[in-house]
């Protein structure tokens, strides 16, 4: 008989912890901006520039991940082709 555990999996716990951490972080930043000693117009301008900077950083990170992913994929293909050719040559002998 299999026993069903009532405990959530480790992956779900970690995912939940990351959600709480990021939510708390962004909530803290947002509250900090609300309490900041700036006028509303100045705050909106600084918030807009900060968000634009985060978007640009995100775009750069995505492009960087694509480059690393393509390099990894190319290396993997080379290794698979090398391994495949070794197997084919062994089968021919």
Polypeptide structure, described:
With 93 residues, the chain is mainly α. The relative contact order is 0.04. It is built from 2 helices and no strands. The chain starts with 9 loop residues before the first helix and ends with a helix. The chain has one domain (10-92). The protein is elongated.
Chart the SSEs and their pairings:
Blueprint: H1 10-35, H2 40-92
Can you give me a brief rundown of this structure?
The protein has 93 residues and is mainly α. It has helices at residues 10-35, 40-92.
Q: Roughly how much helix do the residues carry, as a percent range?
A: over 70%
* CA-based shape: elongated
Structural class: mainly alpha
Please indicate the percent range of residues in DSSP E strands (runs of 2 or more): under 5%
Q: How many domain modules?
A: 1
* DSSP strand tally: 0
Query: Averaged pLDDT, please?
Result: 84
Number of helices: 2
User: Low-confidence runs (pLDDT<50, min 5 residues)?
Assistant: none
Our Rg estimate from Cα atoms comes to: 25 Å
């Amino acid at each position: 008989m299999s026993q069903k555990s009532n405990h959530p999996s480790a992956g779900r716990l970690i995912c939940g912890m990351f959600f709480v951490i990021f939510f708390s972080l962004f909530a803290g930043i947002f509250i900090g901006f609300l309490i900041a000693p700036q006028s509303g117009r100045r705050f909106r301008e600084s918030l807009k520039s900060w968000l634009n900077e985060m978007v640009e950083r995100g775009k750069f990170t995505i492009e960087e991940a694509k480059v690393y992913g393509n390099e990894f994929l190319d290396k993997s293909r080379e290794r698979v082709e090398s391994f495949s050719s070794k197997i084919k040559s062994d089968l021919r002998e």
